[in-house]
């Protein structure tokens, strides 16, 4: 009974995640995404992301390393919920496409103009010809079609980053992992 309950709960969470992604795409495409700017601490942001991603990585026996450097100001101004969503989308992809016992890293370094968040993994990697395609809605590389998801996470992340006047870059190679760099402007 416990095992069935666990599976039902996990399936329900996955379904809820898919529904939320579809709703976010609808809001993005209708121009109705509203950012809620507020002050938050980098420590709380990183801690909440860590609490979600670390168990996922542990389940696949992956190492998950977090590094925060160059903090000059404890508080940042932005939409903490949406930034959290961006990081969870990027990191859950890193976990999904990195094999067991692989490595995942997140490096956060707040600067004067931008906060740089870099997510690296030792996963499957992406061919350079697909860099723009991966940010399209419902896009999925044919080689990874057996993985869960609708192909909306990167589309949503890129649009939310753009709404916050930031940008995202990717560097990757098949079999060598990926590195996503997010630059979010310092607000306020």
Describe this protein's structure.
The model has no long low-confidence stretch (mean pLDDT 85). Helix 2 (42-59) packs parallel to helix 3 and helix 3 (80-97) runs antiparallel to helix 4 (153-163). The termini are far apart. A hairpin with a 3-residue loop joins strand 4 and strand 5. With 188 residues, this protein is α+β, with helices and mostly antiparallel strands. It contains four helices and seven strands, in the order αβαββαββαββ. The strands form two sheets. The chain has a five-stranded mixed sheet with strand order 2-4-5-7-6, with helices on one face. A two-stranded antiparallel sheet has the order 1-3.
SSE topology:
Elements: H1 2-30, E1 38-41, H2 42-59, E2 63-68, E3 75-78, H3 80-97, E4 103-110, E5 114-121, H4 153-163, E6 167-172, E7 178-185
Parallel strand pairs: 2-4
Antiparallel strand pairs: 1-3, 4-5, 5-7, 6-7
Helix pairs in contact: 1-4, 2-3, 3-4
């Amino acid at each position: 009974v416990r095992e069935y309950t666990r599976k039902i709960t996990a399936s329900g969470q996955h379904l809820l995640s898919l529904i939320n992604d579809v709703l976010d795409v609808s809001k993005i495409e209708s121009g109705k995404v509203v950012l809620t700017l507020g002050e938050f601490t980098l420590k709380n942001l990183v801690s909440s992301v860590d609490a979600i991603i670390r168990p996922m990585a542990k389940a696949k026996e992956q190492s998950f390393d977090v590094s925060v450097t160059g903090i000059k100001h404890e508080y940042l101004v932005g939409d903490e919920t949406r930034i959290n969503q961006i990081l969870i989308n990027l990191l859950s992809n890193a976990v999904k496409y990195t094999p067991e016992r692989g490595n995942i890293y997140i490096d956060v370094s707040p600067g004067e103009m931008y906060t740089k968040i870099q997510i690296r993994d030792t996963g499957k990697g992406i061919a350079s010809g697909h860099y723009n395609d991966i940010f399209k809605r419902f896009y999925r590389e044919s080689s990874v079609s057996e993985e869960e998801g609708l192909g909306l996470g990167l589309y949503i992340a890129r649009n939310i980053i753009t709404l916050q006047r930031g940008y995202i870059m990717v560097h990757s190679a098949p079999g060598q992992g990926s590195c996503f760099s997010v630059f979010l402007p310092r607000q306020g």
